[in-house]
Amino acid sequence: MEKEVEDVIEKIRTIRIEKKISILKLSLESGVSRSHLFYIESKKTVPSLETITKIAHAMGLQLKDFFI
Asked: What is the pLDDT of residues 4-63, one digit of tens each?
């Protein structure tokens, strides 16, 4: 996995924890399955841009916030 992808995944996890959002709540809000979110945060799978966008919107963010 490329470093840039790992950085985005780490940012997703960090922001989720800072906002005190559980994986279950993020799953319900984003429409992304809980297991898929777990695999993303465990760096076992690479999320698509569509999935990252759903995650961002569920956390009240824009897609660009994960790439800054």
From this structure: 999 999 999 999 999 999 999 999 999 999 999 999 999 999 999 999 999 999 999 999
Q: How many whole angstroms separate alpha carbon 42 and alpha carbon 64? A: 22
Question: For helices 34-41 and 23-30, what crossing angle results, to 10°?
Answer: 120
Q: Could you give the number of structural domains in the chain?
A: 1
Token pair belonging to 52: 């990252």
| Per-residue buried b or exposed e for 46-64, using 16+ beta carbons within 10 Å of the residue's own CB | ebeeebbbbbbebbebeee
The model's pLDDT over 20-30, given as tens digits with 9 standing for 90+, comes to 999 999 999 99
Residue 47: which domain range?
3-66
